[in-house]
């Protein structure tokens, strides 16, 4: 969440930078500043009213001592009127504060200076590429056909049990899925990330803290009886561990990793992009989260990007890293790098990770702060990334490693799967 201080001091800057996200903030910023002006006006009136109330209360005591009963009664009536006025002003101030807060959460995060302008994924900037695109035989097939041929994933059974987008992994498919989760967690913990096993249901405060509410509540599955949300990503519960906390400088950096199933309604998704594992309502993902000092968050972001790159590289998958343009970024992100792996059978790039720096945006909502050596309290910075999301990784692994004799398993996974080939 952007701060009122920033909007007061640099309203034109906020409007200009949010335009990079194709977001016209001028009207909202104007309304926020008007509510702030009114609130401060009411505060000035309240201060004056309370001062008059204090003075008049003293007058009542003096009148009573002097036996001036008529004057005392008149002063009491004046005190009663001032009390009513003060209550009215307090209510108006609360209304302004509420309106102001409701408007503040409608403003997305300000993009970093190096975020390129643009409206869609076509305007993203490729930072670098790695790995080699395999030369598959002419009869190569997409992963949904391979999953059926080798009895790895049953999409029809998922439809029977729940609906489209809820696949059932079976046999070696289930074991490969579990192997990927364990390998990703081991890779992250060896790099110093503390493993967390969080709940997969969160409350509204948690959804608000990381910015899913009110921006994306329509994309989350909701349990109305308890007002809980199924997590769209482990980012939500893991980052919220430090909600309403004041940390010390010595606590940083905080590095956490977690595996969770993730649940997303994906409303409006259709066409070829939803075939097979390309877009699911329930999927597995391993997440990394960092909480950083502000001056160290850019370095932390670069570190996380390199970490995910090494992980993708270890799977021998062709990949590219893209810096998202303003129009393709999330509501809460200040800068995001996406990792995409090449699906040789589908002949397209598949997103498998987003690594983002949120700067102080989430921390302001979370009230996640730290105290420096001088005792000053400031918001920390939060970052997260997929390390990795499994469905499209699994799709690319199946497709890119298919041979006439079966599907080869990358060397780094063989100690986890206990088999070297699916045939």
Produce the secondary structure layout.
Elements: H1 4-9, H2 11-18, H3 26-65, H4 69-104, E1 125-130, H5 143-149, E2 153-154, H6 155-161, E3 168-169, H7 171-190, E4 194-196, E5 201-202, H8 204-210, E6 222-223, E7 228-230, H9 235-239, E8 245-248, E9 254-263, E10 282-292, H10 297-314, E11 319-323, E12 335-343, E13 348-357, H11 361-366, E14 368-371, E15 377-379, E16 381-389, H12 390-400, E17 402-403, E18 406-408, H13 411-417, E19 421-422
Parallel strand pairs: 4-9, 8-14
Antiparallel strand pairs: 1-11, 2-3, 5-7, 6-7, 9-10, 10-16, 11-12, 12-13, 13-16, 14-15, 17-18, 18-19
Helix pairs in contact: 3-4, 5-12, 7-13
Key features of this structure:
423 residues, alpha+beta, eight-stranded mixed β-sheet, three-stranded antiparallel β-sheet, 13 helices, 42% helix
Give a brief description.
42% of the residues lie in helices and 22% in strands. The protein is of the alpha+beta class and 423 residues long. The two termini are 52 Å apart.
